[in-house]
Amino acid sequence: MPRFVKLATLDELPEGAAREVEHEGRVYALFNVGGEISAIDGICPHQGGPLADGPVVGTTVTCPWHGWQFDIRTGKTPLGAKIKQEVFEVKIEGQDVLVAVP
Predict the structure, then answer these.
(1) What CATH number has the domain bearing residue 15?
(2) Average pLDDT over residues 68-79
(3) CA distance 65 to 46
(4) How many domains does the chain have?
(5) Which residues have C-beta within 8 Å of that of residue 1, sequence separation ≥ 6?
(6) Nearest C-alpha neighbor of 93 from the set 1, 6, 23
(7) Is 0.85 topped by the overall pTM?
(8) Quick check: helix, strand or coil at residue 48?
(9) What is the tens place of the pLDDT at every residue in 20-52?
């Protein structure tokens, strides 16, 4: 069952920002788009690129290594239904960004 853990603060993730956070050996990519915080698996499934370092247009992040794209809200990609990035539930408590980790 997932548990919520603090992975950042709103000060560390202002609007338009992305941040890579490692927790218990797993890498998460956190994004603030339009004031909405999203969290996805931070490692691109293609060759391990850092998704938090990629450009975000709308709600789509592009891996900076080879251009794979993912919707930061759903994890879906235009590459097909078999490929999907894991998405994690986010809660805001005060200034804390809490993410449901496995």
Answers:
(1) 2.102.10.10
(2) 96
(3) 9
(4) 1
(5) none
(6) 6
(7) yes
(8) coil
(9) 999 999 999 999 999 999 999 999 999 999 999
